[in-house]
Specification:
It is built from 7 helices and 3 strands. It is mainly α and about 200 residues long. It has a domain of about 120 residues: Ribosomal protein L17 (50s Ribosomal Protein L17, Chain: A, Alpha-Beta Complex). It has a 3-stranded antiparallel beta sheet.
Length: about 200
């Protein structure tokens, strides 16, 4: 039995509380649901679920552990053969507490504690679903890949610009003037040469 919580106990002594929890657990496993006060239902819930966990193991040692609390062997047999197999796929939450309002006379809060029906299926854990998803990529790795891609693009030659760029109009005009001036100079030199050769030589006369 779990350690009693701080505060007032349900009975006059710890032994009285243990016997009270044993009787409530026996009635719960025998009938499937019982009506009691809300305080007793909350105290009974961990005790009953612990006994069901022992029953799911199914070995002799677990049966003897349950018999220390539930002394009725017929109820223990029902717990191991009928109740425990229905919770084989569940990892907890075998009982349910439902509030039903105050009791007439002393106005005590009443509740119904019952075993979860067989039709209820266990919901999958959210943690397992989250772990199955791929982990997000770290920001540092993304920044590194972006920097490498930028460097590669900067190293590539610009395909839009032609290799041989067209000369500017001023440069082409200067080149044309230079070509035109060269034959004129040669022509002038040729005329001067011819005039020098055609001059008659002095005979010394």
């Amino acid at each position: 039995m779990p350690t009693p919580t701080k505060g007032r106990r349900l009975g006059g002594s710890p032994a009285h509380q243990r016997h009270m929890m044993a009787n409530l657990a026996t009635a719960l496993f025998e009938h499937g649901r019982i009506t009691t006060t809300e305080a007793r239902a909350r105290r009974l819930r961990p005790v009953a679920e612990r006994l069901i966990t022992f029953a799911k193991r199914g070995d002799l040692h677990a049966r003897r552990r349950v018999l220390t609390t539930v002394t009725d062997r017929n109820v223990v047999h029902t717990l191991f053969t009928d109740i425990a197999p229905t919770f084989a796929s569940r990892e907890g939450g075998y009982t349910r507490i439902t509030k039903i309002g105050p009791r007439k006379g002393d106005n005590a809060a009443m509740a119904v504690i019952e075993l979860v029906p067989e039709e209820a299926e266990a919901r999958p854990r959210r943690r397992r679903a989250r772990r199955a998803q791929p982990a997000p990529r770290p920001r540092q790795a993304e920044a590194t890949e972006t920097a490498e891609a930028t460097d590669q693009e900067s190293e590539r030659p610009d395909s839009d610009q032609p290799d041989n760029q067209a000369e500017s109009p001023d440069a082409s005009a200067e080149a044309a003037d230079a070509e035109d001036s060269e034959p004129d100079d040669e022509a002038e030199d040729g005329e001067d040469g011819e005039s020098d050769d055609d001059e008659p030589e002095d005979d010394g006369r």
